Amino acid sequence: MKVPKKAEKKFDGIIFDVYQWEQEMFDGSKETFEMLKRPDTVQVIAVQGDKILIAEETQPMKENFLALFGGRVEKGEDALSCAKRELLEESGYESDDWELWNKIEPYNKVEWTVHFYIARNCKKIAKQNLDAGEKITIKELSFAEFIETCISDKFWGKDFTMELLKMKVNGELEDFEKKLIG
Amino acid sequence: MKVPKKAEKKFDGIIFDVYQWEQEMFDGSKETFEMLKRPDTVQVIAVQGDKILIAEETQPMKENFLALFGGRVEKGEDALSCAKRELLEESGYESDDWELWNKIEPYNKVEWTVHFYIARNCKKIAKQNLDAGEKITIKELSFAEFIETCISDKFWGKDFTMELLKMKVNGELEDFEKKLIG
User: Fold this and answer.
1) pLDDT-based confidence at B47, cuts 50/70/90?
2) Left (φ > 0), alpha (ψ -120 to 50) or beta: where does A11 sit?
């Protein structure tokens, strides 16, 4: 959901900005409503041949986890540029075949979109260039291993897990495999 | 995740409080980290005979949606008391058979737990007593209709949808039906 235009910024955070506004209720009374805005993020499904590449990651304050490559869209950056930058920084790979697969708004009280990209035909062209708060090992998974991993508790990224579960329940995983690997 | 003890409260919101702290990175450098705290919430799976009761709801700023009964835990209130209060206010029903079914932390940058309760043997004892920002109609669903509804796009409550999808994929829905209805 978008923060309404009439809302006032009450706090300017490092990630989260807080907005408030007067909202009319059904009985005509008014209440102060509150919402957050945060930078959009990208997640990259990185494909190399018939393998999917994912990150095994350590960050301060978190247990080790598995995740798609990705991160926050910076000021003045578009989502695709961010996806290319994050893939290169976190893995050293680049791709010449990008597709926007899905956009998800994870949480209705936060103005925040996660952009999911497929990057086919990935090639290693550089060393990783990690932030001081990241340690990342790259895992190569078959499609079946990828699905199992991303549905498991060790995977960070509930919205992607949810999409995979929906596809599994609806019998759409075979099409998804074709989309990724051909 | 919990906000670390050393964190400082930087903003005191209506729903969201913002905390920040200095975090040491892997190379010894420091960065300011940010997290939010918000009131815990409860969600009630209300059972009457072989039917599940859910809310068809209208709120300012939202499209009509379907949801479990529930709401925010108030200051000084425990989660079960909140569940009983919200069920009574939103539906006019009470139950003498409560069970804490699950606890979920939806979002790792927010200290926030959702408590899911099963309320069996629900009985209507009062009229609804709704907030100025709520309009609620009660729907009675069979177990199969309930699952279908809570997996659909009209349902508000992704964390519950995710749990149902996992149970469906793992063949655990029959056990869940027994737990609810017997």
Assistant:
1) very high
2) beta
Task: Judge whether residue B61 has pLDDT over 80.
Answer: no
Per-residue pLDDT, B87? 98
- Separation in Å, CA of A26 to nearest CA in chain B: 6
Residues of B in contact with A109 (CB under 8 A): 15-16
Q: Do A93 and A125 meet the contact criterion of CB atoms below 8 Å apart?
A: yes
**B22: closest CA of chain A, how far (Å):** 11
**Contact map slice: B 117-146 vs A, CB within 8 A:** 131-135
> A123: which strand partners?
A94
Q: Is A60 in Cβ contact with B23 (below 8 Å)?
A: yes
The answer to whether the Cβ–Cβ distance between B26 and A61 falls below 8 Å is no
At B106-142, the pLDDT tens digits run 988 999 999 999 999 999 999 999 888 889 999 999 9
| Chain B partners within 8 Å of A132 (Cβ) | 25-27, 29, 31
- Cβ atoms of A74 and A39 within 8 Å: the answer is yes
Reference A44, options A144, A138, A148; nearest CA is: A138
Q: What is the ipTM of this complex?
A: 0.91
Between CA A71 and CA B58 the distance in angstroms is 35
Q: Give the confidence band of A146 by pLDDT, cuts at 50, 70, 90.
A: very high
Contact across the interface for A60 and B132, Cβ inside 8 Å: no
Spatial contact of A68 and A160, defined as CB atoms under 8 Å apart = yes
pTM for this prediction:
0.93
pLDDT of residue B58 exceeding 90, the answer is no
Share of chain A above pLDDT 70, in %: 100
Q: Does A29 touch chain B if contact means CB atoms closer than 8 Å?
A: yes
Chain B contact present for A162, CB below 8 A: yes
User: Could you give the CA distance from residue A113 to residue A103 in angstroms, rounded to a whole number?
Assistant: 7
- Which candidate from A20, A24, A158 shows the least CB-CB separation from B162? A158
Whether residue B46 contacts residue A25, with contact meaning beta carbons closer than 8 Å, is answered with no
The per-residue pLDDT for B156 is: 94
